Amino acid sequence: MSTVVLDHITKHYDQGKVLAVNDVSLQVGAGELFGLIGPDGAGKTSLFRILTTLLLPDKGQASVLGYDCVKDYRQIRNRIGYMPGKFSLYQDLTVKENLDFFATLFGSSINENYALIKDIYEQIKPFNDRRAGKLSGGMKQKLALCCALIHKPEVLFLDEPTTGVDVVSRKEFWQMLKNLKQQGITILVSTPYMDEAVLCEKIALIQGGNILSVDTPDGIRSKFPVPLYAIRSDNIYQLLTALRKEPGVDSSYAFGESIHITLNEQQTNMAAIQQSMVAKGHTQLSMEQIQPGIEDSFIRLMNQAQPAIAWQRK
Ligand SMILES: Nc1ncnc2c1ncn2[C@@H]1O[C@H](COP(=O)(O)OP(=O)(O)OP(=O)(O)O)[C@@H](O)[C@H]1O
Q: Can you name one GO molecular function term for this protein (predicted)?
């Protein structure tokens, strides 16, 4: 039996005017580290709030640990930990007071489940008497994780835990998640950062309330259906403009310091594109075939699903 099940879940807001989640079905296995990957407004928070029993779906069924998210909300709340996207601890309470408070809510104590939070808590313990509102972003995130873990949940929901957190703290955070997974906790984490997708065992790409694909990160990359090329010149902007007018080019988008392109037809080859760009005056051209990353897969799936929406990188 899967630990988390979403079965044709749909959610609207504003009396049906805003479609936040559109007929989403997916399953998360016991002990899995599962990532929900998508940009702002994709529907990640809505799905997390449905699974944590804080929001009712319009249609469909959801369950966690075999309990129905609508009927059995009490059982679910006792067994899960939830770290919302926005810092939701008491800013005026100290680190220790916040932890004590959340432990007491669940009839537990810091000592009772100390082993579970030890590695994380010890990093913020020197600031035990500091008010939560005065902590740095990385420390707030660690405190929030400790509070979500203090009652030893079986399933952990982390909504964009690394958004706005510096790169070093992000790395540390993912290491903490791996350690928690080794202790048998099922973890669902959402993120808008494509580079974090590869740190999950399995991911769902979500956009506009629709699931675009569910697979392992390697599985998603391997489904990229056509060759992908990276092309550079000494003027990327002009090159992108020219490539977009080139009949043989199917898709093109700026990606770091190069442009990623796919070709329209099998007959078109990169040599022909290169010749055309040279003829148009582009200099210092270099091009190579590359392995698609998760972001390339996401862009392709998103354009297939909704050609009009351009991907906005966070
Ligand atoms: N309470 C609400 N009332 C109206 N619309 C809402 C409400 N909450 C979310 N939405 C809309 O529903 C859609 C999905 O939002 P949701 O917060 O679930 O996405 P998200 O992927 O978590 O994005 P973000 O990181 O920006 O929160 C968005 O278009 C959002 O504007």
A: ATP binding
123 and 152 co-located in one domain: yes
What domain range includes position 263? 225-291
Q: Is the beta carbon of 40 within 6 A of some atom in ligand 1? A: yes
- What distance in angstroms lies between residue 177's CA and the mean position of ligand 1's atoms? 25
Copy the structure tokens of residue 212.
């675009």
* Domain-embedded: residue 266: yes
208 ligand 1 Cβ < 6 A: no
45 pocket-lining for ligand 1 (C-beta < 6 Å): yes
Report the chain (314 residues): mean pLDDT per 10 consecutive residues: 96 95 97 96 96 97 98 96 88 95 90 89 93 91 92 95 84 90 95 93 96 96 95 93 93 94 82 91 93 95 67 37
**Which DSSP letter does residue 192 get?**
S
* Residues 257 and 207 grouped into a single domain: no
Is ligand 1 within 6 A of the CB of residue 311? no
Does 309 fall in a domain? no
d(CA 150, CA 131): 19
